[in-house]
């Protein structure tokens, strides 16, 4: 969000959503250029990402500064046109922007009056900023594509797709097993374990025990604590999971059924990277909200009212 802009959008409804309605989407790798930038580099609250200096898209870094990272500001008119595109579509859009800049340069050569020159000079600062920004994002797109070509990153995407299309609670996924043995980035692997657990409704005890053993052997006790916290949150569970024992206050949904109900499917990885248009695949949460809008929130209000009434009744009984 750019705080310098004074534009306001008309908001007709505000929907408060329990995050347990859709815990799947945060576990999936993002597909848009903006989402991938966030996955790889992390967009902070100021709309800034930090690129390792050795990968920096800056052609002329200041060698007098021994900085480990280069900052790139994403609150930018060029980035706004790129953030919702697939990574494969960014190059095409940047080419269009470059053609626009060339057109403006040709237009300058054809100016023949004082009024036209004044108009052009007024636009010149914006043109200069746009040209510089385009160069930065062309190089950033190259960095992103290079990162995505990494075998581990592509393996994460393929494993995610395999789990979504064919969830198996009783089998250890080879990619997860090998990644744990190789001590790969733990948060990415845990997301896959969560995904397998949620979509399968649970993991076979022997499968979860194997994952747990590998985590301890490769990463130590600190990461085991993280896995236990995920179990406490209900994101990872085995067939012996007991809601009362873990003090779970929600009713876990059948996410495999929800995926089929809302026709939530993943685009093939290779096709996704080739596409040159906006990615139109909505999250599971968006599908659910669309249904709420179509039904005018009737079922949603009923569920909320019943839950509130039940909680009030339980509270009075305790008193």
From TrEMBL:
**Which Pfam families would you find in this protein's record?**
Sec1
SUPFAM superfamilies tied to this protein: Sec1/munc18-like (SM) proteins
GO terms of biological process kind? vesicle-mediated transport
Which domain of life does the protein's organism represent?
Eukaryota
- Family matches, as InterPro entries: Sec-1-like_dom3a, Sec1-like, Sec1-like_sf, VPS33_dom3b
Q: Which family, according to the similarity comment?
A: Belongs to the STXBP/unc-18/SEC1 family.
Name by which UniProt lists this protein: Uncharacterized protein
